[in-house]
């Protein structure tokens, strides 16, 4: 059963989760962080910048959840760029220790297996940050994704592309495909921390936390994990019973 923490706002959530990450890094200098992109984790990264001052982060490792396929890594909205801008640079992490799946078409056949090997070689993820899509996706595991899935290429739904169009000029600029850690990959992390803010996430959060465990709502896979913390504001918690 997930621990659900309801906080007044996203800033409080950021502070709470950042404190947990700092505790982890102080305990394990080579901690492995599972990094999410999108808007939701930004308050965590912001809160971490000040909290990590004076903490040795030179050995901290990171793995992003996903990447767009076919988007130039130098594009400002590639997840490589986002992770560099929002996490690696402000927190002073070693860029060589922070990976994103390789979304370049040339290497796509083995990119998923390579990523799985890299996560395993790092000893697995200690703390995995997660956001959730309005359709219940975690990572980019859209409805219908197998709970046993591993890092692989997926097609983004129209809804996810519409949700993410705000980062691009038009919805047509949002890539059609992504490479994402699978639900099975995510479930191997030792601690899952799922965050959500705003009423548009309420149904997805209720389904993930209390609904049936079903591939129709991929976030419900968290119910199969024994150490899950869900941090939500009142609006995102509003459909919980
Ligand atoms: C991002 C990711 C996605 C997002 C989700 C919510 O790496 O894997 O699952 O967490 O799409 O996005 P935001 O936070 O922008 O609402």
UniProtKB/TrEMBL annotation:
Gene3D superfamilies: 3.40.50.1360. The keyword Transmembrane does not apply. The active site is at residues 66, 135, 137, 142. Its EC number is 3.5.99.6. InterPro entries: Glc/Gal-6P_isomerase, Glucosamine6P_isomerase, Glucosamine6P_isomerase_CS, NagB/RpiA_transferase-like. The record marks 145, 152, 154-155 as: Part of the allosteric site. Pathway: Amino-sugar metabolism; N-acetylneuraminate degradation; D-fructose 6-phosphate from N-acetylneuraminate: step 5/5. Pfam families: Glucosamine_iso. Belongs to the glucosamine/galactosamine-6-phosphate isomerase family. NagB subfamily. This is Glucosamine-6-phosphate deaminase. It comes from Labedella phragmitis. The lineage of its organism: Bacteria, Bacillati, Actinomycetota, Actinomycetes, Micrococcales. The gene is nagB.
């Amino acid at each position: 059963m997930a621990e659900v923490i309801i906080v007044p706002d996203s800033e409080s959530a950021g502070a709470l989760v950042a404190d947990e990450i700092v505790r982890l890094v102080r305990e394990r200098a080579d901690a492995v962080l599972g990094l999410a992109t999108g808007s939701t984790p930004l308050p965590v990264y912001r809160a971490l910048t000040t909290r990590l001052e004076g903490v040795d982060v030179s050995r901290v490792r990171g793995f992003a959840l996903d990447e767009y396929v076919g988007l130039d890594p130098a594009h400002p909205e590639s997840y490589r760029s986002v992770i560099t801008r929002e996490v690696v640079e402000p927190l002073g992490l070693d860029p060589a220790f922070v990976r994103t799946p390789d979304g370049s078409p040339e290497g796509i056949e083995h990119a998923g297996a390579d990523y799985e090997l890299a996560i395993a070689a790092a000893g697995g993820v200690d703390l995995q940050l997660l956001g959730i899509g309005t359709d219940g996706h975690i990572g980019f595991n859209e409805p219908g994704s197998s709970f046993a899935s591993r890092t692989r290429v997926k097609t983004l739904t129209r809804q996810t592309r519409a949700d993410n169009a705000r980062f691009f000029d038009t919805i047509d600029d949002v890539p059609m495909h992504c490479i994402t850690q699978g639900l099975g990959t995510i479930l191997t992390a030792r601690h899952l921390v799922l965050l959500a803010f705003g009423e548009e996430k309420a149904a997805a959060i209720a389904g993930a936390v209390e609904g049936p465990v079903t591939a129709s709502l991929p976030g419900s896979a968290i119910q199969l994990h024994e150490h899950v913390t869900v941090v939500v504001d009142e609006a995102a918690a509003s459909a919980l019973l």
